[in-house]
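Please decode residue identities from the backbone states below.
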């Protein structure tokens, strides 16, 4: 069992390196990405979170910060959390450009959130779980840092329900993007 855990950590570490290598050099492009910056999709995700002025919010795998930036005007504080330093710099720059002073950034992985239990009223992740080394552990971490009654919003791409199409879809995604793990 210890060998399996050790192997899983090594594989997760390799994946995290691939994710950083994939997204670090392209961070600026994500600020302009039509998919990530779609105002209608962001508005819907904010609405799903039902933000209130006193809320503390966490946006995991924030990328250029689109979700965190969309929510910031509606909450007391939002933490834009990502494992890629270049993405965090992009998110911070985007917050400064918009005059948002209640957004902070923090670096780390989704599977090991460095926050105390029951910290956040809102936890979101958008367009990222398919890159997580262990999506089950990441979701457990989200639940751990969420307060009782918190809102958790997960938005991601999905694969077809047909097993054969699912395998083909994920194979193509991995060919396109080496940091892709799995669409569920």
């Amino acid at each position: 069992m210890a060998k399996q855990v050790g192997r899983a950590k090594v594989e997760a570490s390799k994946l995290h390196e691939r994710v950083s290598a994939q997204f670090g050099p392209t961070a600026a492009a994500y600020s302009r990405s039509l998919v990530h910056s779609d105002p209608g999709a962001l508005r819907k995700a904010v609405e799903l979170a039902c933000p209130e002025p006193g809320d503390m919010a966490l946006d995991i795998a924030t990328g250029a910060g689109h979700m965190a930036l969309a929510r910031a005007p509606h909450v007391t504080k939002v933490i834009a959390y990502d494992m890629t330093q270049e993405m965090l710099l992009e998110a911070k720059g985007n917050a400064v450009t918009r005059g948002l002073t209640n957004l902070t950034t923090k670096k780390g992985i989704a599977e090991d959130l460095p926050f105390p239990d029951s910290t956040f009223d809102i936890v979101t992740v958008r367009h990222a779980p398919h890159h997580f080394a262990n999506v089950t552990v990441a979701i457990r971490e989200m639940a751990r840092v969420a307060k009782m009654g918190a809102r958790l919003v997960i938005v991601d791409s999905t694969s077809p329900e047909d097993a054969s199409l699912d395998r083909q879809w994920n194979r193509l995604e991995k060919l396109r993007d080496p940091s892709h793990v799995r669409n569920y």
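Observation: The first helix runs from residue 2 to 23.
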